[in-house]
Amino acid sequence: MKIVIINGSARKGNTLTAIQAFCKGLSREHSVEIIQADQLHIAPCKGCDHCQCIKGCVDQDDTNPTIDKIVAADFILFASPVYWWGISAQLKQVIDKCYSKGQLLKHKKAGVLVVGAASVDSIQYSLIFQQFDCIAAYLEWNLKFKEAFSAGDKDALSKAKESIEKLEELGKKLC
Question: Quick one: CA torsion of 97, 101, 104, 105, rounded to 10 degrees?
Fold first, then answer.
C-alpha cells in the first residue's frame, strides 16, 4: 500500500513523534512518503475554478506535484498540532489545494492524528474531527481512524507510553 503522510507541524515535536510511532507499527511492505507541509511553497486557492476539480492548479508552485502524490496514495494520513481549535495553517493550505484534483481523490482511505495541549475530551478535537468528517463525506472517503493525543510540552508525547503504543497499533492495523 502506498501511504502519504502530511505533517502539518513546522516543529520537530509531538506531531512528528506521533507520525514516527505510527510508522513504527506499519508493515515494511508499505511505501511511505512524508510531506512536510511547512516546507512547501503553495499559494492560497484563488477560487478561479480553472482546475474544475480534475485539471490541477494554475499556480506554478508546489501544489500540483504535492496533490499528485496524494492522488496516487492508497492511504492518506493527516497529522497536525492544534492551532486555535483547528488544524495548522500549513496543513489547511494543502487540504484547500486538494480541491484542484478533488474528483481524483474520491474513495480514498484516510486517517487523522491530532496533538494538542488540552485533554482529549476538549472541544477542539471534535471540531477538527467534524471538519474531516465533512471532507470524508464529500469525497466518499473511508476514514479508518481519527485520534487525538494530549501533549503540552514539546516532548510530552514521547514520554506517554500508552499513547505511543496506541499509535504503533494504529500502524499495525492498517491494511
Answer: 10
